[in-house]
Amino acid sequence: MIQTEQIDSVIKFRLARGFLGRPAYWTAAYFADGLLVDTGCHFTARELCSALRRHTVRYIVNTHHHEDHIGANAEIVREHGATIYAHPLALPYLRDPSLIGLQLYRRVFWGWPMPSEGREAPREILTERHRFHVIHAPGHSPDHLVLYEPNMGWAFTGDLFIGGRDRAYRPDYDIRATLESLRRLAALDISYLFPGSGSVRQNPRQEILDKIAYLEELHERIRQLHTRGWDEKRIARALFGREGSLTYLTGGHFSSVNLVRVFLRDT
Ligand SMILES: [Zn+2]
């Protein structure tokens, strides 16, 4: 399934595999001035390719190597001859997506991407009208990039910034790096924040600062409970209650116990 919307002069594509006419999970790709940020998942590759047919894609930037961000790389390169840029740590996964090691829920929602060949992203990417700064922003993954266009105030943030209050994490998140990356993001002058979820924010600074404050407070509470001798499960239960449906759906990959573990790793 695909939904297209123009915001400022950026085209937003929301993409999801459909089950009985319903979207399973939305991800987003953004297109501006010949540059495509992320390519959705394997199941939506053909739809994204069709939607881009009247444009010329010169560059693809993958914010990180996860399968819902690189899924149409190969197909778009075949049609447009685009150059793919990503962080050096992402390149082996692009070349051989089997290295990602997808759990069942990820195979069902997003599928295995086709292999593609990327290059190390330069510090700046120039298009006809824009100059995009490439900023390393690890945390969600070690290879995460943010693209920032200072003249327009655009920030393409992939999965670095997700709104709301986190209750469940994957075990491989790095909370210290996430907080550092979010602080760097909050220091930028952003008019539009284009996240991997597709929920575009205008003037997001306060929301980013609120998120940082929430994560710092959570870190402190987890640390305090841990010094009382509480184990991960007991802390998770006290702070978040029972595990939610996400935990069951992902076979335990996303859970509040994992969130507590991720925070305690940095305590
Ligand atoms: Zn991701």
List keywords for this structure.
15 strands; Metallo-beta-lactamase, Chain A; 32% helix; six-stranded mixed β-sheet; alpha/beta; 267 residues; binds zinc ion
Spatial strand order of the main sheet: 1-2-5-6-7-8-9
Spans of at least 5 consecutive residues whose pLDDT stays below 50 are: none
Q: What is the total tally of β strands?
A: 15
| CA-CA gap between termini | 42 Å
Whole-number radius of gyration?
18 Å
CATH class (first level) name: Alpha Beta
CATH superfamily: Ribonuclease Z/Hydroxyacylglutathione hydrolase-like
Helix-strand makeup class: alpha/beta
* Tally of individual domains: 1
Q: Give every kind of bound small molecule, once each.
A: zinc ion
Outline, from the CA principal axes? globular
Stated plainly, the CATH topology is called Metallo-beta-lactamase, Chain A
Mean pLDDT: 95
Helicity level, as a percent range? 25-40%
Number of H- or I-type helical stretches:
9
Q: How much of the residues is beta strand, in percent?
A: 15-25%
Model description:
The protein is α/β, with parallel strands linked by helices and 267 residues long. The protein has a single domain, classed as Metallo-beta-lactamase, Chain A (4-Layer Sandwich), CATH 3.60.15. It has nine helices and 15 strands. The strands form three sheets. The protein has a seven-stranded mixed sheet, covered by helices on one side. Strands 10-11-12-13-14-15 form a six-stranded mixed sheet, with no helix packed on it. Helix 5 packs antiparallel against helix 6 (205-227) and helix 7 crosses helix 9. The longest helix is centred in the last third of the chain and has 23 residues, at 205-227. The radius of gyration is 18 Å and the shape is globular. The N and C termini lie far apart (42 Å). The model has no long low-confidence stretch (mean pLDDT 95). The structure holds zinc ion. Zinc ion binds next to loops.
